[in-house]
Amino acid sequence: QHQAAAAAAAAAASRNSGGGLGGKSKVTAKEADALVAQLKDSDPTRRRAAVEHVAWCAWSMALTRHGCRVVQVAFDVADAQHRLVLAEALKGHVMEAIRSPHA
User: Fold this and answer.
1) Contacts 24+ apart (CB under 8 A), 91-100
2) Which of 39, 64, 67, 91 is deepest in the core (most CB within 10 A)?
3) Which residue, 49, 48, 15, 50, is CA-closest to 34?
4) Exposed e or buried b for every residue in 28-62, given b needs 16+ CB within 10 A?
């Protein structure tokens, strides 16, 4: 199961490599489920890596139907330091978030 989740997350990551640059990161429902599974993993190393990946493209993911759920879960499972990183990724986007049905 971890391999399937990792493969789906890797597919999302490869498509979303420009996510931190302002474009929308298209995350499918299956990829979102895989990322959520990684975020909820009992292994703290895998969980931290998943949070760091989401933080890297948090804003662009927050704009999408499935990605916004992933960002919410990342906030739920992240430690205080990583919550700050996630929040920093969303900083400056209030007006865009108001117009988005997902953010």
Assistant:
1) 93/59, 96/63, 97/62, 100/62, 100/63
2) 67
3) 50
4) beebbbbbbbbbebeeeebbbebbebbbbbbbbbb
**pLDDT per residue over 9-57, tens digit each?**
555 555 544 444 344 568 899 999 999 999 999 999 999 999 999 999 9
Query: Nearest 10 degrees: CA dihedral of 46, 49, 51, 55?
Result: -170
Q: Which residue has the tokens 């420009």?
A: 18
Token pair, residue 77, equals 């499972």
> Looking up tokens 């996510």, which residue turns up?
19
Tokens of 36: 């959520």
15 phi and psi angles, rounded to 5 deg? -75, -30
